[in-house]
Amino acid sequence: MLTSTLSSLLTLSALTLASPLQPQARQIAIPSAWTWSVSEWEAGCGRNYCSYIFNITVPSVHENGVDIAGVKAECSGGLSDQKFQACKILEGVNNGVAATFVDPREGLAPANIAVSFLYAGFEDRPSYNFSGKHEAIHNAAVAPLQTFEICPTEVFGVV
Q1: What is the rounded distance in angstroms from the CA atom of residue 20 to the CA atom of residue 39?
Q2: Which residues form the signal peptide (predicted)?
């Protein structure tokens, strides 16, 4: 009897080890026609430094069982080794925005601004990072403040 029980336990243990529970793969799609509005954009470069300042509105989305709370934020920063810099949230809670210059060109002036929106995790839902970019318009002191749209093109889960 003891041998039979021990044999059964060993078999069960072997089966459990052979087929461990795998975490469920989760992904979220970029909501359709989701565009982020950039306003009051100003950017420029001096001798050794480029900077930007702008406001961004990421609208709320309620689509296919996904409810993403939007935010309004003010972003400012400069050329700093292409590291994202957190934006100041003006309206909205729990979700964050960050920005950075990317794709440097010949010389100093970066070609694009990249914006990242963090859809914060809650309970059993992980966080997701959406990102998109737009041409960096260098208009400081030479043109009016600019307005444009950014469409997110990438999304990934954040562990």
Answers
A1: 50
A2: 1-18
138: helix, strand or coil = coil
Give the contacts of 101 (CB within 8 A, at least 6 positions apart): 50, 52, 77, 78, 79, 82, 110, 112, 113, 114, 136
Amino acid at 19: S
pLDDT digits (tens, 9 = 90+) for 84-125: 999 999 999 889 999 999 987 776 678 899 999 999 988 888
Q: At residue 72, does pLDDT exceed 60?
A: yes
What's the half-sphere exposure (Cβ side, CA atoms, 13 Å) at 142? 7
Per-residue pLDDT of 10-20, as tens digits, reads 333 333 344 44
Q: Which amino acid is at 127?
A: S
Contact criterion met (CB below 8 Å) for 88 and 99 = no
